[in-house]
Amino acid sequence: MTARLWRALVAFALLFVFAFPAAADVPVPQLTGRVVDRTGTLSSSDIAALSQKLSDFEARKGSQIAVLIVPTTDPETIEQFSIRVAEAWKIGRKKVDDGAILVVAKNDRHLRIEVGYGLEGALTDVTSRRIIDEAITPKFREGDFAGGISAGAERMMRVVDGEPLPAPSRSVNFANLDDIGPLLPVALFASLIVGGFLRALLGRLLGSVATGSVIGLLAMLILGSGALALLAGIIGFVLSFIADLFPASTGTSRGGSWSGGSSSGGWSSGSSSSGSFSGGGGSFGGGGASGSW
Q1: Is 101 helix (H, G, I), strand (E, B) or coil?
Q2: Which terminus of the chain, N or C, has fewer Cβ atoms within 10 Å?
Q3: Any idea what the Cα angle at residue 220 is, between residues 219 and 223, rounded to 5°?
Q4: How confident is the model at residue 10 (pLDDT cuts 50, 70, 90)?
Q5: Mean pLDDT of all residues in the chain?
Q6: What sign for the dihedral angle of Cα 252, 253, 256, 258?
Q7: How far apart are the first and last CA of the chain?
Q8: Cβ-count burial of 113 within 10 angstroms (0-12 exposed, 13-18 middle, 19+ buried)?
């Protein structure tokens, strides 16, 4: 073979390499909730029900468990992809490292339970593999993805429940501040109208305290959150207490502007269960298990 032919072959090979670059890794999806489904496999009710279970578990135990469904992890293995997800999402509490992620690559028919450092004594590689083989893949083979994921998550929660971990922090958590958005017009109206009556009846200070108490009670009944009820009550008290500083016409116009904002759909279209969730800074080291169906 002549040198000229060799050079032609090398040039052709280089052209082929540059024309067809290697496939890029699948980007890590944004953490938008405890359950992230990029395939449309789960219904909205499935996601809501599972998210609520995982939220209740976190509130009681402190550990975070998340679920991710993607079409494929190609060209990476599911192990390579899931550790990238774990490093990006940081599920679990910082320095406790009590997070776990169930990753499903639907088109690849592969799945993995990625376990944080702090749960490796409970969700061992063997235990994680048993959960996959006994709770998840049998349902996947029947086409019941929602049932398999729910069963797997419940088994993971039961195992973690037996692990001695630091109690969850009881500090007030205002992560769901979005929930108070629809109450702002009510709080403003009550502070200016109802507060005016109560201040005239009880005096400025006592009337403002009574107004804040009423608004806080209503918030508690509507939202079921003591933290948000306290915040709503404080807002009601402050607005009622300073209401005399504003003319009546200003209060009316301000009330109208708030009402218009609340009906714009910005608050109602958001999902507080998803937008408010974030990882706690947990670390992962590759513990867990993988499987297929």
Answers
A1: strand
A2: N
A3: 75
A4: very low
A5: 78
A6: negative
A7: 50
A8: buried
Taking the complete model, does pTM exceed 0.85, yes or no?
A: no
Q: How many C-alpha atoms does 43 have within 13 Å on its Cβ side?
A: 6
Q: What CA–CA distance (Å, rounded) separates 45 from 51?
A: 10
75 preceded by cis ω (within 30°)?
yes
Backbone conformation region of residue 27, classed left if phi is above 0, alpha if psi is from -120 to 50, else beta: beta
What is residue 79's three-state secondary structure? helix
DSSP string, 208-277: HHHHHHHHHHHHHHHH--HHHHHHHHHHHHHHHHTGGGS-HHHHHHHHHHHHHHHTTSHHHHS-HHHHT-
Q: Which tokens hold the place of 194?
A: 């109802």
Token pair of 151 as six digits: 């069963």
Contact 104, 111 (CB under 8 A): yes
**Per-residue pLDDT for 43 more than 80?**
yes
Taking the C-alpha atoms of residue 150 and residue 136, their distance in angstroms, rounded to an integer, is: 8
**Sign of dihedral through CA atoms 48, 264, 191, 176?**
positive
Local structure of residue 167 (DSSP, 8 states): P
DSSP type of residue 122: T
